[in-house]
Amino acid sequence: AQGLVSLDSICHLDARRKPAMRRLIEARLRRGELRPVVVDGAEKVPHWALPQVLEAQVDGPGEQVHILSPFDPLVIQRRRLQLLFGHEYRFEAYVPKEKRVFGYFAQPVLAGDEIVALIDLKADRERRRLLVPQWTWLIRRGRRAVKPHIEAALHRFERFQFNSAGGTQ
């Protein structure tokens, strides 16, 4: 599910599993089910990926957009997010309002292989609308090209929130 893993990322918050997980990784390496990967900035930390992940074709920059929840495993593992995307995330729901920079429930936006924005979202359940109290760009170039893809992702997210079994009908 993580695509690219290290032993620490696989065993996040469960260090007791490391010996068993290390044996599993070694077995999958021997069978060719995993491949070693070197990550810039973490050359001494072993990482692995599935062969099909390494061979996958990636859409153009910004075409594949994901609005990440602050509770997404990619975001929760702050060091990993910093390593892979150069973004230091801070969940501001617990920060006093006057000290917030990005918003109460600001969510990182992953476009291609880059965190390009933080979007604070709020659900207006009565009107069945997704509100955007704050949108903060983290990139200087390419905003115009990626914005329609982000807006499309926001519309999909809104439909999911209000038209799915979990949303209000």
Overview of the molecule:
The chain has 169 residues and is α+β, with helices and mostly antiparallel strands. 33% of the residues lie in helices and 22% in strands. The chain has 6 helices and 7 strands, in the order E-H-H-E-E-H-E-H-H-E-E-E-H. The strands form 2 sheets. Strands 4-5-6-7 form a 4-stranded antiparallel beta sheet, covered by helices on one side. Strands 1-3-2 form a 3-stranded antiparallel beta sheet. The two termini are 31 Å apart. The mean pLDDT is 89.
Short characterization:
By secondary structure, the protein is an alpha+beta fold.
What's the story with the biggest beta sheet? 4 strands, antiparallel
**Overall strand count:** 7
Distance between the termini: 31 Å
Categorize the overall geometry.
globular
Strand order of the largest sheet: 4-5-6-7
Oligomerization state: single chain
Q: Quote the beta fraction.
A: 15-25%
Low-confidence stretches: none
The secondary-structure class comes to alpha+beta
C-alpha-based Rg, rounded: 18 Å
Helix content, binned percent: 25-40%
DSSP helical segment count: 6
Mean pLDDT: 89
- Helix/strand order, N-terminal first: EHHEEHEHHEEEH
